[in-house]
Every structure is written in structure tokens, then in C-alpha cells.
Write a sequence for this structure.
């Protein structure tokens, strides 16, 4: 039988407090670091720019030489190769500012006539000039440990001449699908009572999407020794996810196997669908046991496995993307359970999809998000405005 059913949020807290983040790091070329997590602060080893540069195409000048210049009273300077009294030098965006110059006249504010330049705009020192270190100062911490790298961050690293950096290793998650009824997708024909294995595939893909590396095993039949062997031979992984065999039937061996190999923390959680979820620790590594029904399984993935992966990989929590919508029909809650009701969004309406039935996998594929009904709420009526947590 289930252990005493635990409140969903309390179960997550207990589970996440039972293991530590990974400390392993690896050094990678920056071009391979998109979406990776920085393992230490990155400090600038140089100024950017490392020289004074023109911010516009035009003419480098001494600002004082443009005093009084206007649209109807241009100042005339001589075009030269260096800055002296009454001279200017042609520059392009990004080119060094000549010694003695402190401003750049834009081409639009000047008129070149032979070796004379008419200037129609008075400038102040520093106008259209990029100073040394204007973007980044040498010694400045530009990216902090735990930051998830984006292409724009990698461009900053490249601008500093940095070639490779330390990042935290991606957590490796082994996914073990179990069940007598499961058959490989390689089988061209299904017999009665057989279904293609989908939960393991779904879990492995979500793990990759969320920033981990996944190892999807072949189907393991409902045999405690075979399940134990599959887990024991994959303890090099950082997290274990099993699918199926978590309820209280004769062939539901998985929680017992977890308890025999480590610590079964929780068996039975107040989420609907997903009550048969089990959570444990083996050799200090988190174990998430997904129920076999697909929708119940995906709830265990989203609520527990995603949070565990983030902790392991030093991935900062992100706020769920949410929208407000009006219900087109009633959705029931379940007292004592955090209920996840699938809905489809059309304009400003949330349309309930298969609000019961943990085996209706297509209801998740058709859904845009979930309406989460708290444990103490019986449900929401048609016409109520609700918050929809988007799946993607």
C-alpha cells in the first residue's frame, strides 16, 4: 500500500533537500557553451574597446576647433594625416582616434571640398568617440557563477579574446521504462494488451530540453530483480527516472526496489493526476518514479524531475510562463490534491481538455497549458478567470 500521501509542496521540499548539486565541471570552447551554466566568475582581462575609437564615419577633430560652427556659418579645417591647429583627419567607424583629437564630426555635418572640410556643427569633447574601456573595464566581473549562457553572453566572451571557460557538467539522467505491456516502437504490430513505450521517450526528451543529458534504456519487464539490475548497472548517472510500476498492484515493484537499494522517501503524493509518484535516494542520487499512466507521468516529470535536474545542474529556477483566460467550462478539483487540469487556449478562453483520465496522453499534446487547482478548492466554474501555466 501507499505510504501516507504527502502534500505536493512538502514532498518536493523533502525530496530536493535530500541531495546536493553536482560539483563536477568541464572546460569547453565558448562556441559550445550556449545554455551551459558558468562554474566560476568570469573576469575581463582587457578593456573593451582597448583603444579610443571613432563611433561614426567622419572627421576627427579637436572640439575647440569647431567653436561657433553652424548651418550658416561653417568652420573650415584642413584635411591632413595628423591633428594640429586647424586640421582634421578622416576616420571610419571603429578606427583609432588620432593623437590630439577628442571628437568626431559626422559625415552628415561636414562637406569635403578638395583638401578643405567645411564643418556645420559645433562639438563638445568626447562627441562620437568611444573611450578605452567604455564597454568593459579590465578586472570587471562580467558574468557570475551560475549564469546560464546566451549567445549574447558568448559574444562578450569572444570580444574579450576568451576562448574557453569552465561550466558545470550536464547532469546525466538514466530513464528506465518498466512494464509487461510495453513493446518497442520497432515492433510493426501490436498485440492485444500491448502498447508502445512512450513515457521513457517523453522523459528523455524533456530532460534534454531542460538542460540535462539523458540515457534511455530498453524496456524492463515487471520483475524486481531485473528492475534492480537496471538501476544498479546505471548508478554512474546523476539521477534516475523510472516509468511504471508505482501503484499498489501485484506487478508494481518499483517503490520496493528503490527502498531495497536506498531510501524510499515518498510513495503517494497529493497531485492529481500523479498520486502514485514515488521519490527516493540511492547513493545520494535522486530517483523519480513516474506513474505508468502518461498524464500522471508527465505531472511527476514537470513537478519533481524538472526541479531535481535544475538543482543538480545549478540551473536557476525560472518563473512559469502564465496567461489569464476565462474558462469555457467547469473544471473540478480534488480536495487534498493539487490538481493539474489541461486546457487549450483560444483567444482569451481556456477550454478544458479531458479533465479526468490520467491515460489520455493526447490531452497533453492538444493542451497549451494547465490550470492548477489548489488542494482546498473544489474547482472552478465556467466563466471564471483563471491563470494558465503554459507547457512551453
Amino acid at each position: 500500500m501507499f505510504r501516507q500521501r504527502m502534500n505536493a509542496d512538502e514532498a518536493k521540499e523533502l525530496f530536493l533537500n535530500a541531495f546536493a548539486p553536482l560539483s563536477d565541471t568541464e572546460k569547453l570552447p565558448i562556441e559550445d557553451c550556449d545554455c551551459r551554466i558558468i562554474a566560476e566568475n568570469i573576469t575581463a582581462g582587457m578593456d573593451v574597446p582597448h583603444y579610443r575609437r571613432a563611433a561614426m564615419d567622419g572627421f576627427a577633430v579637436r572640439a575647440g576647433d569647431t567653436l561657433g560652427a553652424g548651418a550658416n556659418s561653417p568652420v573650415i579645417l584642413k584635411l591632413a594625416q595628423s591633428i594640429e591647429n586647424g586640421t582634421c583627419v578622416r576616420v571610419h567607424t571603429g578606427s583609432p582616434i588620432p593623437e590630439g583629437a577628442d571628437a568626431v564630426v559626422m559625415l552628415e555635418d561636414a562637406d569635403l571640398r578638395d583638401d578643405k572640410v567645411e564643418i556645420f556643427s559645433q562639438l563638445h569633447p568626447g562627441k562620437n568617440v568611444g573611450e578605452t574601456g567604455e564597454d568593459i573595464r579590465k578586472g570587471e566581473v562580467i558574468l557570475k557563477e551560475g549564469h546560464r549562457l546566451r549567445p549574447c553572453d558568448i559574444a562578450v566572451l569572444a570580444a574579450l579574446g576568451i576562448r574557453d571557460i569552465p561550466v558545470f557538467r550536464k547532469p546525466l539522467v538514466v530513464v528506465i521504462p518498466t512494464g509487461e505491456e510495453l513493446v518497442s516502437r520497432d515492433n510493426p504490430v501490436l498485440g492485444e494488451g500491448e502498447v508502445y513505450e512512450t513515457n521513457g521517450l517523453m522523459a528523455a526528451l524533456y530532460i534534454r530540453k531542460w538542460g540535462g543529458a539523458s540515457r534511455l534504456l530498453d524496456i524492463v519487464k515487471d520483475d524486481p530483480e531485473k528492475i534492480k539490475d537496471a538501476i544498479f548497472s546505471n548508478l554512474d548517472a546523476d539521477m534516475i527516472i523510472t516509468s511504471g510500476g508505482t501503484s499498489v498492484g501485484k506487478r508494481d515493484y518499483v517503490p520496493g526496489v528503490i527502498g531495497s537499494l536506498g531510501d524510499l522517501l515518498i510513495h503517494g503524493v497529493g497531485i492529481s493526476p500523479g498520486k502514485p509518484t514515488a521519490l527516493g535516494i540511492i547513493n545520494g542520487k535522486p530517483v523519480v518514479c513516474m506513474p505508468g499512466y502518461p498524464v500522471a507521468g508527465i505531472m511527476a516529470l514537470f513537478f519533481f524531475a524538472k526541479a531535481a535536474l535544475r538543482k543538480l545542474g545549478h540551473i536557476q529556477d525560472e518563473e512559469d510562463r502564465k496567461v489569464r483566460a476565462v474558462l469555457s467550462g467547469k473544471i473540478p478539483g480534488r480536495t487534498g490534491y493539487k490538481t493539474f487540469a489541461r486546457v487549450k487556449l483560444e483567444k482569451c478562453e481556456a477550454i478544458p481538455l479531458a479533465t479526468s483520465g490520467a491515460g489520455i496522453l493526447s490531452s497533453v499534446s492538444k493542451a497549451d497549458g494547465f490550470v492548477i487547482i489548489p488542494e482546498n478548492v473544489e474547482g472552478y466554474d465556467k466563466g471564471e478567470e483563471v491563470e494558465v501555466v503554459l507547457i512551453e
